Amino acid sequence: MQVLIQPYGKSEISLSFLSGFTEPVLNAVRRLPNRRYEPSQRIWIIPDSQECIDSLLQNLYLTGLFTYEDVNENQNYPRNTNDELINDYVQNETKKLEEVLKVRHYSKCTIDRYKKWVQLFLTQNSASESNCNNQSAQKEINEYLKFLALKKNVSASTQNQALAALLFYYRFVKNEPMEKLTNVVHAKKKTRIPVVFSRQEVSKIIGNLTGTKKLIAKLLYGTGLRLNEALSLRILDLDFDRNEIIVRHGKGDKDRHVMIPRTLICELKSHIENLRKIHEEDLKAGFGSVKLPQALSDKYQGGSKEFKWQWLFPQKNRWKNPQTGEEGRWHLDESLMQRAVKQAILEAGINKNASCHTFRHSFATHLLENGYDIRTIQELLGHSDVSTTMIYTHVLNRGAGGVISPLDKM
Fold first, then answer.
1. Of the residues 251, 256, 318, 320, which is catalytic?
2. Among this protein's residues, is 361 annotated catalytic?
3. What per-residue confidence (pLDDT) applies to 297?
């Protein structure tokens, strides 16, 4: 099920449910304070406040109609095409693609993205097996990339991701030799300088946050973790004796270690003790189960109720698995944290196009300014190539900010 959330006036937002209303969804919206319905536009109007948005997302999530697996991380990704418009050939091909990706242990995020790009490509090209051959492949791929660039206005990196999905599809699903697809257009990726907070700005933003969201923001800045990496942490990932956090299945399915900021040790230990109490209460109520990675769920029978496997930042309310009927807690939703940080940035009066990821940029930049070598920072960030980390060298004093303008010498 999809819900469209848009601004409505100065202090409200509108909700429209693209696939119609159901009783659980209606009840979820009706529980919100100060909500109203506009029958002429078939939309619900709710206050544009952090508290109201948090309640809405929690209520919708508890219906079981909206799951973590359904979330798209980037709005540039193509939406699922209506089933009536996808013929059997497209469905069979995307199923084959998914199977090959799973065998090669690609992440779920990559699998979902590749499937959508290939599905859109096959649908746009009439999805007939006859025109998916060697002779027409290059022409069709180039036309598709042109469509994405000119009609969809996707970025160069997004366009190249779509190309990677198609090349993978032709090589491993269609078994077409890669050398026959070398003349396709590669988008030139632009070099963009990352947005960075000053230390004073970081302090202001964190000061505008409270509770768990404040702790997460400190962790993002203090470790350089990506938001999804921080929210996916489990209790056992923190090793206080070694002063380390184990980041499992990070970007590119890589594991790595980052330090625990010493100023957060007491706060994190206190947070974990509070989680222990909540978990014990859940167990007494017959709940307390958490979703484990598939391989571990088969290996550790009953391990889903052990405290060490619980999320470090669980949701406030329990979540019911629609497939199994079991109730447990999922980790905090990324959108709640993103929205809280955006609001904190506004309240701090910071006019930068920033988000939770800016804490990661600031972490790397400030380490460089403190004299740490680029290889150490590369390892902490989990970059495969040091050239990715080199983008942060723009902040050193020998860069633009450290040059004295001739105007200042007049």
1. 251
2. no
3. 63
Query: Which CATH superfamily, name and number, covers 83-181?
Result: Tyrosine recombinase, N-terminal domain (1.10.150.130)
Here the tokens at position 291 are: 């979703």
Q: Is 360 a known active-site residue? A: yes
Counting beta carbons within 10 angstroms of the beta carbon of residue 273, is it exposed (0 to 12), middle (13 to 18) or buried (19 or more)? exposed
- Which among 334, 226, 314 is positioned nearest to 271, based on CA atoms? 314
Query: Catalytic: which of 113, 360, 361, 366?
Result: 360
Dump the DSSP string for 183-243: TSPPPPPP--PPP---HHHHHHHHHT--HHHHHHHHHHHHH---HHHHHT-BGGGEETTTT
The single-letter DSSP state of residue 289 is: B
Domain ranges within the chain, ordered by starting residue: 3-66, 83-181, 233-330
Out of 226, 234, 279, 366, which one is annotated catalytic? 226
Calpha distance 137→158 (Å, rounded): 20
Please report, in angstroms and rounded to a whole number, the separation of the first and last CA atoms in the chain. 64
Catalytic: 35?
no
Q: Which of 115, 329, 331, 383 is catalytic?
A: 383
- Mean pLDDT of successive 10-residue stretches along the chain, which has 410 residues: 75 76 77 80 83 80 61 46 57 91 85 90 64 64 84 84 90 75 66 88 97 97 95 96 91 87 96 96 87 69 84 86 72 92 96 95 93 92 88 64 60
Closest CA to 231 of 87, 129, 121, 329: 329
Looking up tokens 């004796």 gives: 241
